[in-house]
């Protein structure tokens, strides 16, 4: 089959190049329409109980993560000039498109009881800017007297916050970034004018920062990856053509990636944004194997057109298999059931095969038009450092196998020990560096306000107007008191908060009456509320009760404490206590909110990534079994590729790197890539063992010499290609770069040392190994090659 493929490719060079050009132009045309994602990646499936509760919450009360918060802790704020600037800041932010409300000391509403109309009214404390320091101090004293703002707008430590609500439609669109930039620019201007430092937090701000950085880093790392690949290729081949034309292949693949995203109606996320630079790195080994083998054949005296046909026939099938195993490493992510992961796996898998097709056609065709390699182009075949390394590997395999096994055993033992130190823990802002101002500011809000991450409770009363049922509000009060007692959670807000504020307003703002009204007081309060049905005061209570009066919202925020503490807090503390509080009352409680969903999503993702790793292992083992038809060879080939994964897991334990989505994804991807070296080595080994009449020593050494340099070159490209991601500002991208590059360099080492040692020691009964795929004998045995009809190849 591959004989005919070689004849077809080299016999139809112009039509194939035209097809590549037209299809790439088509994909490039559609690539213009690819869009960036501005929404959080949803990980938990919609049929999960917690996701059902969260979706229900959003239907009842809307978005819970739409607040951007500015924090201040500076006495200078309360100086008249600075406070007037602060008022101007709030007024200007209100005017920005996409901002629905601003709440701060300068905009604090004052709930008052209108005795004449018998209703509540909301008025502003600052109806006009204060003219004197005494006037300002007097109004601020009145604001602080309202307990509703204690530990919500004003912390016990003296900090204050400006809470800015965004329109959910703007929040989940590309306009969010523009709004956030204008808002941030105005805040920075205030800092310069007043000399007061502001702290920034809130999910809209974090999402905006991350989306902006994804855009920038996608382009930066794409450029760096291309530059790194070009430099490494030039160091290997020392000439222009073997550098330029592989980069053309990569350029075509990048266009195809973006076109695929557009055609499948996928958006660019933090995951899919990594695909162009990742596939740049993964695609280059195809070109290296093809060019290296082409130069080897030509150096051995094979004419140019026969050498080009030979690499298609011999390297083509091996490359197809290795690309298949690499694609499996990505495409098993489809099994996670998570949309973002599925999109990542599908686009990667499709374009890995596109990379194979482009490289196996474009490289031989282009080099068929170029002059035959001269002495300068072939110098890399006798590159002394490479030859020295290969010679040392030969000595190691032939004379020091015991040392290889001993070192491997020690490494495996240490890796197993280190793996027990690995913990599965993730945070909401994991991806940002520790010294980044967003994390520093987040700690400020955690210290002053117990955090800003959304945390919500829903109390189901079981019937319409159930919140009016006797005893319900007292149970809500018990729930609030319990939540308030938790150090990790901020002071909650509910319908009770509004009723307490109403009670205080009803009693002339006496702070002693910031409590639930008595039964007699409640009748007056409810009357005032009914009379306020069309006022702004009513909208505040509506945000805490659904339209039917059945569901009560208890809204709070919390610190970013990580998935381990969060799981314990929710499952072992909060849920049991809530069940105890409402027991026998007919009420049901649900814990929900964006923070809970995010943390649970990470745990769900890790679990599914483990399953995908197992699937990848099984599928690749099946491929190896199909290729070599021998259980011993399957085991021997998998061992050198399992050890690097174990080493990486142990390294994570020793370095304190937690298991989280960004680190768990490494294993299936790296396994799919690393096994490629084993396939190349074993393919050549099978060929050599037959050619040398089952002379084990000769077969292992020849396989090492023939494939060793290509394995070194491709592994170095992969190492540096993934290592560049360690320069990212995202923790997820850094982890992908560090762990994948380490895994691949260890895999190269084990495949060049342990694999030949295992073959030399354990590969007995060699004649029982026969390929079982039709046509694979031409892949293994050179002495059975069919002659390629050179008349069908238009190469001069």
From TrEMBL:
This protein's record includes keyword Membrane: yes
Compartments it resides in: Cell membrane
Keywords for this protein: Cell membrane, Membrane, Transmembrane, Transmembrane helix
Membrane protein topology class: Multi-pass membrane protein
Keyword Transmembrane helix: yes
Domain of life: Bacteria
Transmembrane segments: 12-31, 219-237, 243-264, 271-291, 311-334, 346-370, 402-420, 614-636, 711-732, 738-762
Domain SSD: 247-369, 635-761
Major subcellular location class: membrane
GO cellular component: a single term: plasma membrane
PANTHER family per UniProt: BLR2997 PROTEIN (PTHR33406:SF12), MEMBRANE PROTEIN MJ1562-RELATED (PTHR33406)
Entry protein name: MMPL family transporter
UniProt source species: Flammeovirga aprica JL-4
